[in-house]
Amino acid sequence: FKMINVTGNILEKVIEYCTHYQHEEKMKKIETPLIGDTLETILDSAWYADFCTKLEFEDFFKMQAAANYMNIKPLWIMICIALDNLHLKGKSPAELRKIFKFAEPEPVAIA
Fold first, then answer.
1. pLDDT, tens digit (0-9, with 9 covering 90-100), for 61-87
2. Rg (alpha carbons) of the chain, rounded to whole number
């Protein structure tokens, strides 16, 4: 049985999401292909969009791991969509390599 390391601040965010989801407003099902350009339009909720925009970039990956480990599928889907919409959409391959710290590809010799 392997337990991932979920820090206190990430656990607080997961609990905040779950509390809102359970007691205030369930997330609407996100249809694909995605409809809309803004996170608020895609999620159809100002609260969920605001929740995502307040996350630090590094926290998106921690939230993804926590949601996946705890099997909170709506949170996992929302975080994936928000990461793309807020940080990855429209980036060039070079910018994405820099964001994810991937090395430049080796040039291919054409014979």
1. 999 999 999 999 999 999 999 999 999
2. 17
